[in-house]
Design goal:
This is Acyl-CoA dehydrogenase. Its cofactor is FAD. It holds the Pfam family Acyl-CoA_dh_M. One of its GO terms (cellular component) is cytoplasm. It is a single chain. The chain is an alpha+beta fold and 395 residues long. It has three domains: 11-123, Orthogonal Bundle (Butyryl-Coa Dehydrogenase, subunit A, domain 1); 129-243, Butyryl-CoA Dehydrogenase, subunit A, domain 2 (Beta Barrel); 245-394, Up-down Bundle (Butyryl-CoA Dehydrogenase, subunit A, domain 3). The protein contains eleven helices and ten strands. The protein has helices at residues 11-28, 44-57, 73-83, 89-93, 99-109, 112-123, 244-280, 292-320, 326-351, 362-372, 379-394; strands at residues 129-132, 152-156, 159-170, 177-183, 193-199, 205-211, 222-233, 237-238, 282-283, 286-287. The protein has a four-stranded mixed β-sheet with strand order 1-4-5-8, with helices on one face. A four-stranded antiparallel β-sheet has the order 2-3-7-6, with no helix packed on it. The protein has a two-stranded antiparallel sheet with strand order 9-10. Strand 2 (152-156) and strand 3 (159-170) form a beta hairpin.
Length: 395
Amino acid sequence: MSTYESPAVTPRAAEIGDRVERFVRDVVAPFERDPRRDAHGPTDALVHELRGLARQAGVLTPHILPGGGHLTQRETAYVLRKSGLSPLGPLACNTMAPDEGNMFLLGKVATEAQKARFLAPLIAGDARSAFLMTEPAVDGGAGSDPSMMRTTATPAGNGWTINGRKAFITGYAGAKVGIVMARTSAEGEPVRATMFLIDLPHPAITIERVLDTIDSSMPGGHSVLSIDDLHVDGDAVLGAPDEGLRYAQIRLSPARLSHCMRWLGAATRANEIATAYALKRQAFGKPLIDHEGVGFMLADNLIDLKQAELMTDWAAGILDTGDLGTAQSSIAKVAVSEALMRVADRCVQVMGGTGVTGDTIVEQVFREIRAFRIYDGPSEVHRWSLAKKIKRDAR
């Protein structure tokens, strides 16, 4: 079956994306059985080796151009989808969360000195980063609602002192760059927050534990942290004081789409594997594909994959206009995450017992996409936000 590519795929994006796809399929995919991983994700040793191979192939950090320029969001959608064809692809190509979103934010907000110190090592693939925003639910802290921020930053001399707890901090263990978000408004005042850049690890930040989670694609896992009297100088402020909530939207709107892009690639590959299985596996005298129940599931997968591709392209186009696209990114995040969940679930079902084993990446893709329906805002939060917009627009 011929495939339709969006007219938004520019020659530049097509050339980069096609190189990324060849690299991920030919070089990265064989590492999917590499034992260098722990309960939380691939080890840094494996990541280091894969990034070295990506550097040699000229596909390391492919969405950021020489000189610091950035592909458009539509072009990024194409390239990141290709990197996602293996769960290891985004790590190898340096397009993985949270680094990809952190690089985007630093490119938009950081000073030149901050870019040299914190952004350059990320782009070079020499460092990983962490975004310290989410807080433990038991503390009543910020999750999908960053205005509930309980971590505080108070003025101290020529800088700030930060105290609080953070949770679900992806990739903290082993990260070298940290973005800490803390409340800088007084108790009882409207919430204002500020972002701070820090070198990691830092003695004032303690890992309480690394959570056991359903997903296992991100080095360092997801940590619960204690921040005790972390002192930073004034030049650690990212952007301007009290602008953290606005900067969070600058980061999160594209980041939601980046997740959609990467997991669209993974779901595409899972569907390829399930289709190959259905063509080869015999049952009741004929290949599985010839049984209507199986054939229809694979047909539905094609429909969901194409809708996810078009939805992502549409939302990325909104971001390219300069609009934050908050509503559009919410629509895309819900639609794509739920469509890809259906795809992954059908792939498991088509493959039967084999689909729930580690013999292929299908089982992992199912787990990862299930987690994707929660992080960067669960579907229910995005639907609630959209419902509020509907009410506002009706007035």
